[in-house]
Every structure is written in C-alpha cells, then in structure tokens.
Amino acid sequence: MTAKYDAIIIGTGQSGPSLAARLAAAGMKVAITERKLFGGTCVNTGCIPTKTLVASARAAYMARRGDDFGVMIDGSIAVDMKKVKARKDGVVRKSNQGVENWLKNLENCTVYEGHTRFEGPHAVSVAEELLEADKIFINVGARAFIPSMPGLESVDYLINSSVMEVDFLPEHLIIIGGSYVGLEFGQMYRRFGSEVTIVEMGPRLIQRDDEDISEAVKKILENEGVNIRLNAECIDVEKRDDGVVVQLDCESGAREAMGSHLLLAVGRRPNTDDLGLEEAGIEVNERGYIVVDDQLQTSVSGVWALGDCNGKGAFTHTSYNDYEIVAANLLDNDPRRVSDRILAYALYIDPPLGRAGMTEAQVRQSGRKALIGKRPMTRVSRAVEKGETQGFMKIVVDAETKEILGAAILGVGGDEIIHSILDVMYAKASYTVIQRAVHIHPTVTELIPTMLGDLKPLE
Question: Active site includes 261?
Fold first, then answer.
C-alpha cells in the first residue's frame, strides 16, 4: 500500500528537521525519514561532539599552563578519558534526543526509520513501505572518504565517527590528513597526552587557505609537540606488533612513522551511492554529489538536494542556509539563491581560525587592484593580556569599490570576531564603515579598525 504525502524529506541532518517544521506549519502533510542517528553528522559525529572534546582538551592545556598565570596546581595534571567521553556523550545525547522528540511530536509530520531508496521520480521506499510525494528533499549528508591505500585492509583504523567511541588515551596517534578534521583531532589528542604525528601528502597544511596561514597553523601545532610530516607522496600502512606503521616518502625525516593507532582524515564523500538516484533520473557529478541549480533544485522537477550531499558547502551553517533558501522560495515568494552566500568557516584548533570571503591568493589570481592589512596577535593587547599571542589577522579590500573581499583571523576569538567583518561584507558596504566604528577596549575586535586604517597596496 502506498502512503501519499505533500512532501518527503530524506534525512534529519541540519536542514531536514527545520524544513519539516516549516512545511508542516504551512499545512503540508510531511514525511521525514532517518536510517540511523537523528540530527545527522553535526549532532552525532561532527561539530557538537568534536567541539565538546576540544573544550576538554583546552581545559587540560590551561591547567598545565597555570604557572604562567601565577596559578599553582599541586600534583600532576591527569586526563580521565572515560569522563571526557561521558561528558561528550551527554552533550550529544541531549541534542540527538531533542531532534528526535521534536520530529516525532510535530503536527502534520510522520517519522519513518530505515534506509530510504528512490523507486521513481516521486516515490521512495523505506522500512518496507512505499511513500509518494510531489516534493522530495534529499538531505543525506556525507561520510568519511576511505582512500585506496596499500596495506589499509590489514590494519584497524579510526575515522571521524568511530573515534567518537574512544574512551582511552592512544599512546601515539598517527593522523593521515592535514586539513580541518586532522588538525583539530591532532591538537586535541596531543593536549590529552598522546604523542601525535600528522601526515599530509601535500606541501603544506590546509591548502585551501593562504600559505602564511598554513605556516602559522603548523607552528602553533609544533609548539605543542605535534609532529608534522609533509610531502608524504607515497603512503602505505602495515600492522606491526600491537601498532601500525605508516611508510612515508617525505623530503626529510624518518622514512616511516610507527604509532599505536591510526586516524584517517582525508576528506568526505556524499551518501548518495545507495539511494537509487538512477531510478529517479537524478543527476550526480563525478564525485557523487547531487547536481543542483542556484535554488537547490535537482535535475528532476520537484526534487531538491540540501546539505553536504549537494557539494555546495559541507558545513552545518551552509546546510541550514540551504533550508532557508528552499523555504524562502517555496513559501515566502522570496527568490533566495546559493550564489548570494559568502563563503565563511572556522578551524577549531586553539587559537581558532575564522575565514570569510576570498583568500589573498584568490584575490591575486583575480587580477583586481586590492589593498591588504595585516596585524600580528602580539600587537593586540587583549591577546597579550590573556597570554595568547599566537597567530595574526589580515583583510583584503577592493581598491576601487572599497568593499571587503576577504579576511582571516587566526587568533584568540577568531571564530567569533570574523562575523563583524562578514556582516559588513553582506551589506556590501565600504570598509570605512567598520574602520570608523568605535569598538570596545580591550578586545581583539577593536584592532580591526586599526588594521583597516593601515592598508597597503597588494603587490
């Protein structure tokens, strides 16, 4: 028997539940499906648990630095990893159950649990039931990419989801991948007390960012004792004794790294390969991401793709914005578009990196006339007072329009401070708006107007 709905939402990640609530409130009969964990990656294995762990790691780090601030702590600093995990689990459980209870008590909304597959352009099967709707929204997220690597099948390894179950301290954690996931876990476990080696195939860390940021992040991690191995062009792994050995082909350093545990952090892949998209005629690109237009519609009329599976953002905040775009177009007669979005994200090492807009390299490649400002955190009094002077801030401005093109703040509070710049960018206002603003002293943000008052031509 077929159950008919006005709308079907596949997946309960960041955009799905909010969209279900909005459509249901508009009087639509809605079905939402979930095959595993309510809340998706962010709630269960992404932002919420990792940032909870980062907070525990920072507490350990600051306890060890107590003497720097005149705070004497008797005895050694110990980390109880079972308590660390229990704290993380408690935070996750509250969010996960909150999403599940919200959806299951939502009027005009029916929750189905089980794997969902397309049976046609407007029909899906889930839990041995067939559902049909004129509108279908795909919100299936992404998972860790497992590379084709010699020897990998012979060793046990962790990924971003399975590492969430670790309640012990690895003696030596080897991380393959020098981007956001790898760096956050690398610093985190080093602060917990593990020896950590990060292996990156490329010539530098976080290659999507500018070289000066990559180098500064590398120094921050190395200052805490994290081993960084770059240019590892030929990687293979093997099990040895009770640990794992990663064979390297690096320009310098030992030819191999031996550790107790291995974490793979080499990227993500969309959860689209088992949805039966071919049965619906939904187009995907060569990497498996669902092809969408500027308003997130797929190649099939009446079907949309939101969140990580469409390749348009891969962040929690972009997934939520996908919901806002779809809802605005469907319900508000407000033609919002993905292309209106300014790229912004953060790297949650400590101190964090906040990024918005174009990188300096992208501005140079564009060939436009630009101005640049840069200020080290050593010249930010608030950072000095807090004893956290690593990093810098920089901003790039269009020399003709005076609009801000991009900014990066690597330093204490950088993940929050970047928004004062981002808001001016969305307003398409001149940089002088923020340059002439009077910010509170002493803060990190107050140095943004100072930095903007000392712009130089980008040569």
Answer: no
